[in-house]
Amino acid sequence: MTPNTDTPADRELLGARIAELMPRTLAELAELVAIPSIADERVVDPAECVRAAEWVRAAFRAEGIPANLELTPDGSYAVIGHRPGPEGAPTVLLYCHYDVQPILDEHEWLSPPFELTERDGRLYGRGSADCKGNLVAHLTALRALRGDTVADDPDAYPVGLLLVAEGSEEQGRASLDRYAEAHPDLFRLADAMLIQDASNFANGVPTITTSLRGAVDVVVTVDALEASLHSGEFGGAAPDALAALIRMLATLRDERGDLAVPGIATDQVWPGVQYDEQAFRDDAGMRAGTERLGSGTIADQLWARPTLTVLGIDAPPVVGAVAAIQPRAAAKLNLRVPPGADAAALRDALIAHLHAVAPWGVGVTATAGELGLPFSADTSGDAFRVLSGALTDAYDGVATVTSGGGGSIPLTTTLARINPDAEIVLLGVPDPESRIHSTNESVDPEEIRRIALGEALFLARFAALGSSDRGPTPTARR
Ligand SMILES: [Zn+2]
Predict the structure, then answer these.
(1) For FRET with 121, which of 97, 310, 327, 349 sits at 20 to 30 Å CA-CA?
(2) Catalytic annotation on 99?
(3) Cα(462)–Cα(314) distance, integer angstroms
(4) Are residues 130 and 236 in the same domain?
């Protein structure tokens, strides 16, 4: 792609400030990664999450955002702060989350997960990309925008700012959703929402995510016997709960790997940017000889179609397993629901299918978790247009692309329902190499710099539109 040669003046100024701020940005990222803020008290002392929340509160207060710790229904704290803008200025919601995924197998990490470590230009650590890298990008953008103006100067920022740093995003408990529903007036202040928890399609390619799959977890339990039985004495005739569960799970996909659940369509087509076959193999770390799953293109499979993953199975582990038939077995399934599909209907179809395919008269119970609805962004508004241009300038002229998100951010649908007039745009610092949620998560510091610059340019330019230019009411500009 040809770089844009005429650099806008705000790009020069903000770009220089951000380059200067980057050492501090990365030092703060290291501080934040060092706090193991996994929002699961079975894994980490909840005090660590409070420590992270307090870090976030102090950092944003120092930038003039009057942030506070707000208790949400699951017991986690969201860091929330509202700073009104100058008269007539729009308000922009800045979203990120400070909690992180568990580290999985510690031995797979090449460096300690909570010690930000540089290797070949990338920074490794849990949360470095998802989402602490985005959190420090917000801070950096604000600092660049403010320049030398003191943080409590009423004119420090040209826009109103609403900070939302969630504390249990990775747990899928929709706790901030419940908080937002209980405080709708706060979330209705926003004219635009920067949901910085998405990814770039490729390193160096600015990306706005315009659709997200929804998700629902289903736990299925199979009961067959009163107690475990000797596999020699009873095996062959006694109903085996684990064998029944394996048969049931095997019916969920066909030979090609497509989902094969009656009532769940799998023929949708992705209309946007396509995902190169070889790039996908590399990004996913597929072993030589393995085939990718499903018919259709990779983009179809990832962004337009449903999928189902077995997340866990309750069965005796190999070490310590004895020669016994299992009386009971369970699996946790994760169903991803594409935009346009009815999430509740897909969940019900999956549960009905599990009951229908259960063999040998075994007892089956299936319970579903919180329903995360799919999201599809409106791309016709000012925020989308201004952000596309700002990102392109921040990425030295590389055109901004729109991609789907295979993952789910249920909060986006909740926010869209509470404040349908706000434009919601999704972006973020991870690239495919970031391996978010996996071991050896990493971030390219250049992506933090470029996203922070794009964000600062966006805030300045969106403010410059003024509220009057954007139409008499937010609804009128749709
Ligand atoms: Zn995230």
Answers:
(1) 97
(2) yes
(3) 51
(4) no
